[in-house]
Amino acid sequence: MTPPTTHADEQSSVDALAPIFKASGDPLRLEILRVLRRDTFGVLELSQLFDMRQSGMSHHLKVMHKAGLLEPQREGNAIFYRRPLNLENARLTDQTIRQVFETVDRIPLPGPLQVKIEAIRNQRADQSQAFFARYAEKFREQQELIAAFDLYAAPVADLIRNRSTRHDWNTALEIGPGEGAFLPVLSKLCEHVVALDNSRDMLAKASRTCIDEHLNNVELIEGVTDNLLARGDDFDLVVANMVLHHVPSPADIFLDASALMKTGGCLVVSDLCSHDQDWVKDNCGDLWLGFEPEELTSWAVDAGLVPGESLFIGLRNGFQVQVREFWKNPEAA
Predict the structure, then answer these.
(1) pTM of the model
(2) CA gap 129, 126 in Å, rounded
(3) Beta strands of the chain (E only): which ranges?
(4) What Pfam families does the record point to (predicted)?
(5) Which superfamily does 138-332 belong to?
(6) How many Å apart are CA 310 and CA 293, to the nearest integer?
């Protein structure tokens, strides 16, 4: 039998709600919550977005963090902020925070603010591209400082092959194919494969792989997912192997993949779990120090995808790789 609610319990609930409403009762803080819907930004980036001093921005972030509206995410020596990942329980405070998010998300971002966000994403993208241009000839060597290709490629290939026995996948997209080492797997399973990369140097290496492996059904495209969306492409299968930690806005990969997938299509992602080995930023061109599994799930659900199987692979050097699958309207397939 559930005990009756006492006045003390009710007062405790009110006391817990007060900081949330106080922290969110400011137009600037609501704007901060809006830009953090899918992105993760550092204090300096948020200061740049809102044209204010770092000390003032830090104060706002501290208040919002204390109220549970934000949580910090350490990326090496820098602190970034994001919305909380775990708001699934029935606590009144979590319900209230979710309602705040749902309300502010109904309001579109103003054009000038969106332009500033794109500028920050472009800065991140330029940083990543500069790394790959500099180390194109040593790509495999640099990447295997973290994880040898076969350690994550083999489980991804096995997962896709197992699914292909029940799904008719004619078209596939690989985002960020690197040297093209995974393209032979996709080429054998699908009639047509698109390999998309924004690095001309890496595409040149992928082209060499296609020639050497006689992959005649692979189309190499220099660009980003927006280029494929503009063409009206759609795919049964989308693969992103060890790509998310190199892109300026990982959440957008899920949104774009969903838009590019047919009903019943599948997105397969392999990437690093969250870690604290900051040296990878300089040595491997990483923009992000991995991701919590809940982050990928949250981005996928927000993009209208349904999580499927998960596999976690521990590596000797302290890294852990997660292999995840996400489906678009699986019940309609």
Answers:
(1) 0.83
(2) 5
(3) 41-42, 71-75, 78-82, 171-175, 192-197, 218-222, 235-241, 261-272, 305-314, 320-328
(4) HTH_20, Methyltransf_11
(5) Vaccinia Virus protein VP39 (3.40.50.150)
(6) 9
Nearest CA to 240 out of 220, 228, 230, 254 is that of 254
Write down the domain spans for the chain: 7-109, 138-332
Q: Over its length of 333 residues, how does the chain's per-residue pLDDT go in tens digits?
A: 555 555 445 456 778 899 999 999 999 999 999 999 988 999 999 999 999 999 999 999 999 999 999 999 888 778 899 999 877 666 889 999 999 999 999 999 999 999 999 999 888 888 877 777 776 666 666 666 778 888 899 999 999 999 988 888 899 999 999 999 999 999 999 999 999 998 888 899 999 999 999 999 999 999 999 999 999 999 999 999 999 999 999 999 999 999 999 999 999 999 999 998 888 888 888 899 999 999 999 999 999 999 999 999 988 788 899 999 999 987 644
State the CB neighbour count (10 A cutoff) for residue 71. Answer: 14
Backbone angles phi, psi at 216, to 5 degrees: -90, -5
Q: Which two tokens stand for residue 315?
A: 């590596």
Q: Rounded distance, CA 189 to CA 171, Å?
A: 9
CA 97 from centre of chain: 22
Dihedral angle over CA of 17, 20, 24, 29, nearest 10: 180
Taking residue 330's Cβ as centre, other Cβ atoms within 10 Å add up to: 15
110 by Cβ neighbours in 10 Å (0-12 / 13-18 / 19+) ranks as exposed
**Residue at 228: amino acid letter:** L
